[in-house]
Amino acid sequence: MGLEYVDRSYLNLFQLKLQHELGVVGFFKHHRGFPIVSSALMDPITKKVVADSHRFVTDRGVDLVDFKRGERKDDIAASYRAGHDGVSDAVLAVLFVGRAQEKYRVFRTEKRRNPDTGSTYPRMVRSTAMVNHFYFYGFDADIGPFFPY
Fold first, then answer.
1. Closest CA to 131 of 49, 61, 73, 52
2. Count of other CB atoms within 10 angstroms of residue 17
3. Dist. CA 83–CA 6, nearest whole Å
4. Which of 12, 50, 123, 146 is surrounded by the fewest CB atoms within 10 Å?
5. For 98, what's the count of Cα atoms within 13 Å in the CB-facing half-sphere?
6. Radius of gyration of the chain measured on its C-alpha atoms
7. CA distance linking residue 30 with residue 85, whole number of Å
């Protein structure tokens, strides 16, 4: 008989509709009110998330750790957890924020040409890109180590 246990909690956050091209188009046209959809509209949102992540690191005084290629994130997290005894003034504490550049599925705008009229139009398509991911590693007095991903 094997023994299984969970040594941390994972929280995966995503919006199902934004996992498909038409969902992204609908988000920008109907939710944000843009008449034409382009992946360029994602840039201000991305910049805000990055700025907010950096502000969180600065305001909380936690380390921003740049993960290097081939480095195991869990090993680095273990070293931070080793220095945390589970007792804190706060019930919930972020131990550090990790940043890694990883290949990820993204949406891009490509110019397409109508075969009948020859006119061009934008088309949202899936692609891949190297993007920065921010990982918030924390400790909760009730559940122990966690990180939302």
1. 49
2. 12
3. 20
4. 12
5. 23
6. 20
7. 48
